[in-house]
């Protein structure tokens, strides 16, 4: 299989929708439990971006640098929980700011910094909330894309389009809210049961 064929397969509508639903369900219902894995994936992507930056500006052997930096990023984020908490909180705050105040970009950065710091201090409740919201958003986006036929390329150009798609009508709002609430309750009950088993 040629790289172009593989890229077309991975970005096909079925692959994107399936990925969004599976990742959304995992994050929504067991996001806090697998936070170390989730954090490592974030580190992998950030390391990959750093590797791409290095190869563009300083180095010519792209594959080795990108792989090495991605692995280092994944290991750092897996071993140091605070990095994942900061990035998760910052991303959540940024997207909340972009959605609520799209004309004032500076507030998105302020909210990103605020949520990054808050997530360090109230890790459990905020991480449960964030993973439930991200998971529910991924599922609602997949449902919207499946119904309307919107492709992922149409969404990636503007982050606000993600929120517009998720909250486009009352049915999607209800789906999103139900998933968030169910995710929070499920994660809380699972956490409580694990604590009782340990005692």
Describe this structure in words.
- This protein has 199 residues and is an all-alpha fold.
- It is 86% helix and 0% strand.
- The chain contains ten helices and no strands.
- Helix 2 (13-30) crosses helix 10 and helix 3 (35-57) packs antiparallel against helix 4 (62-79).
- The termini are far apart.
Briefly characterize the structure.
With 199 residues, this protein is mainly α. Helix content is 86%, strand content 0%.
List the helices and strands and how they pair.
Elements: H1 3-10, H2 13-30, H3 35-57, H4 62-79, H5 81-100, H6 105-121, H7 123-148, H8 152-156, H9 159-166, H10 170-198
Radius of gyration: 18 Å
The count of helical stretches stands at 10
Q: Major sheet, described briefly?
A: none
Proportion of residues in extended strands: under 5%
- What is the number of strand segments? 0
Order of helices and strands: HHHHHHHHHH
Ends apart, CA distance between termini? 53 Å
